[in-house]
Amino acid sequence: MDRLAEAGQTSPEADTGLGPVGVIETRLGYVLHRTDLLAMEVVRGVLGEVGLTPSRATAIAFIRGNPGTDQSTLARALGIKRASAMELVNMLEALGVVRRKPGRDRRSNALHLTAKGTQLHARFIEASAEADRIIAGGLTSQEVKQFRALLRRVRASLDHYLSTTEISENQGENQNGKH
Questions:
Q1: Which phi and psi (to 5°) does residue 97 adopt?
Q2: CB of 179 closer than 8 Å to CB of 88
Q3: Measured between alpha carbons, how far is 113 from 119 in angstroms, rounded to an integer?
Q4: At what angle do helices 115-135 and 28-48 cross, to 10 degrees?
Q5: Cα separations in angstroms, 16 against 13, 20, 21, 25, 28
Q6: Using one digit for the tens of pLDDT, what is the confidence trace for 104-153?
Q7: Quick check: 64 and 94 in contact, CB under 8 A?
Q8: Cα dihedral across residues 20, 43, 61, 103: positive or negative
Q9: pTM, rounded to two decimals
Q10: What is the CA radius of gyration of the chain?
């Protein structure tokens, strides 16, 4: 029991029906962030069962959809630095799921999935569908469709805002390259 309750007093949040961090809990950014943390915990758990992390799975999916892509393009697609993309590709190559071939010039490599990478991609697709079922467990199929549409609109609005402000110039410095 907290000190306010022991003293027979209530917190300001109790009077307003807000949680422990107050009005911030009503902010869309906060709700999205907290939801994302929980959703990514589910995704990490489900992907972990097939031996993947979210960044590895996303890289595999991108390479499968864009055979012959190079590391710079992969980095931009994943929103990570080129050095982080190189580390990620090195790791995927060491796992035997990605193969480098000569690229469009002497300085680039074309990335392709191996047979093992293709099999892992199929397992990832199944795992991601399971994660979606867990995440959307309390929603009807119509609500899921509507929620996806709303999130796409929010994302488009944020993309537009960031592409037209100075904030976007600093985003690359704040992104991490965790694999």
A1: -105, -15
A2: yes
A3: 9
A4: 130
A5: 5, 11, 12, 12, 18
A6: 887 888 999 999 999 999 999 999 999 999 999 999 999 999 999 999 99
A7: no
A8: positive
A9: 0.72
A10: 21
Who's near 49: CB < 8 A, 6+ residues apart? 127
Instruction: Give CA–CA dist 116/134, Å, rounded.
Output: 27
- The CA distance from 11 to 162, in Å, is 37
The whole-angstrom separation of Cα 111 and Cα 121 is: 15
The structure tokens listed for 70 are: 């190079």
Q: Within a 10 A sphere around the Cβ of 109, how many other Cβ atoms?
A: 19
**Distance between CA atoms of 166 and 154, rounded to whole angstroms?**
19
Token pair recorded at residue 148 = 């996806």
> Residues with Cβ < 8 Å from 59, sequence gap 6 or more?
74, 78, 85, 88, 89, 92, 98
- In 95-166, which residue ranges form alpha helices assigned H by DSSP? 115-135, 141-163
